[in-house]
């Protein structure tokens, strides 16, 4: 479930002999009325996945992930080069280090393993704890998974996995469909780009892309896995996109007039939705079909003007927009999945910057910085919020956040003097204390590698540095991405 680069390239889970598999399928009821010669291992995953609670698209994805993880072999075990030393067990390869609550008796029992996977994945809406999902390896098994669900004969509706929006700012990063991270940084001369040369691996040299100078950036995945990059400054708004998943890029294309900030999120049906702020408030534009063309710009109800904008997604799949300027903090939200929007509602006082992330159980967490440090506010249900709580931390900081491999939210803050971070002490739990993460800078963003390790990118007048988890609780030193520093970011 949590693997290293070598483990992913060499994984070959051991399989049970055919007679053992057939007896397990019989025990699960999959072979009732069918010849064992026509049974497939995926039928077992479909049956126990359905019994555990997976439905609709979430069931198909669950079967595909299990095929990628274990070939749907309930006795599969993997220990090769796991960091920390640990075992991945059973159909969904539940790791004994990260999930000690799942004992071996449960992990190697098909039905119990499925129930554990259902719990860990928040009902099939969050597959980020599985490295095969992060690397896109499950896609090659989707046809087989759909066929198994079709043979099961159950087609009840259910949730698709949530696609969480990427951070926006002057440096942004997202994973291509093959699992490699790509990073974009906005210099005064335009946008610069670097990418991992292999999954979880080293980096290319920086490539100059042109585009708007001194821009704010956002990046998001289309429904087919192609990344789209958006760049705005006070005069120009442009975008470019991958021509195929993990492939080359288009040239820059006009996307609208200039503005202050942008953010992008993915609707429940995969259509991207882009929000832009400016002197008269917030506007939005959306894809008219997944992977398709775009609507015209429409007002999102006005305020707040010249705001920092971020997009989150509630546990039920509705997008939420958060907009902060120096005087006010407001939000609006979809009234239904893929649907219309509420009016703006007050969310707090003004501030400097914000970041939005989600707990393991799907509830959103919002952090905002200001002159006395960083505060946070979190969902207590899909429609209600806590009060603001102080966390300390750097004053007037740029913020970013990402989730550790076990689902804990980690927050990073940087101002001109210091970089710090804090993290949840447990899954869905309160936070610890801020700790030093480096010296000062101008911008920060975090992304997750395909194996779950967080990678942080920090900018300064000297260029772009990065720092990454070397294990799941230890960090490298700051370094250039490759042999070049990248653009200065003021």
TrEMBL record:
Keywords, comma-separated and alphabetical: Signal
CDD domains in alphabetical order: PLL_lectin
Stretches assigned to the PLL-like beta propeller domain: 167-482
A Pfam family of this chain: DUF8189
N-terminal signal peptide: 1-39
Domain (Transglycosylase SLT): residue spans on this chain: 47-132
Protein name per the record: Transglycosylase SLT domain-containing protein
